[in-house]
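Long-time lurker, first post. I've been practising inverse folding by hand and with some scripts of my own, and I keep getting stuck on stretches where the structure tokens seem ambiguous. Below is the full token string for one chain I'm working on. Before anyone asks, I'm not after the true native sequence, just a reasonable design that respects the backbone. If someone could post their per-position residues I'd love to compare against what I wrote down in my notebook.
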């Protein structure tokens, strides 16, 4: 599901007119399943990706997936100004709230943000200024009610673009008896990528 959602986000950027030579793409919540997959997909398609992560320990992991730069989340948790310096041609946001508001304020003219998550909250404390002064597009991405034809396209592209190395880099396997401890670690923001539970 995370990979499918990430592919839908990449498609949203493409449909918004964002090309690899337009500038950097920002991925928030980069250490999670959607963020990790989005980085690998965008890098494979030739985009230059910057990742935002709340954990410094994930820098090497995110760079191995294809991120050229990793930024700390701390710089994105304060209330943004209505407009800030233009930094990003596009963005994949899994966090929402103030972080998404700051990303919108930093978008290049004609930029597109694909928003698919609310890990940081469901509010959006922003203004209309990025939209009407910089022509920014905020595209919501839903993976539950996606029409069948778009679903098929996303899965086919995901299978064709995602590098084989991704599965070794972004996933780890646990036994069923390890699930409670792993779930607790997930709730404490201590899990990176995806966890597969092997039923023996």
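-- Answer (accepted) --
I ran through it position by position. Result:
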């Amino acid at each position: 599901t995370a990979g499918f959602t990430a592919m839908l986000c990449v498609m949203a950027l493409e449909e918004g007119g964002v090309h690899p030579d337009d500038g950097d793409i920002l991925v928030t919540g980069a250490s999670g399943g959607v963020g990790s997959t989005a980085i690998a997909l965008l890098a494979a398609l030739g985009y230059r990706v910057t990742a935002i992560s709340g954990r410094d320990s994930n820098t090497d992991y995110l760079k191995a997936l294809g991120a050229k730069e990793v930024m700390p989340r701390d710089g994105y948790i304060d209330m943004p100004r209505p407009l800030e310096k233009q930094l990003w041609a596009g963005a994949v946001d899994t966090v929402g709230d103030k972080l998404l508001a700051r990303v919108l304020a930093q978008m290049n003219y004609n930029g597109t943000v694909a928003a698919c998550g609310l890990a940081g909250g469901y509010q959006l404390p922003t203004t209309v200024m990025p939209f009407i002064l910089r022509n920014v597009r905020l595209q919501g991405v839903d993976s539950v009610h996606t029409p069948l034809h778009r679903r098929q396209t996303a899965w086919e592209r995901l299978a064709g673009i995602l590098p084989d190395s991704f599965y070794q880099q972004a996933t780890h396997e646990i036994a069923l008896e390890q699930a409670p401890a792993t779930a607790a670690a997930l709730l404490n923001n201590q899990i990176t990528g995806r966890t597969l539970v092997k039923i023996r």
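A couple of notes from the structure itself: The mean pLDDT is 95. The beta strands are 25-27, 49-53, 67-72, 88-93, 107-115, 137-140, 171-175, 194-198. Happy to go over any region you disagree with.
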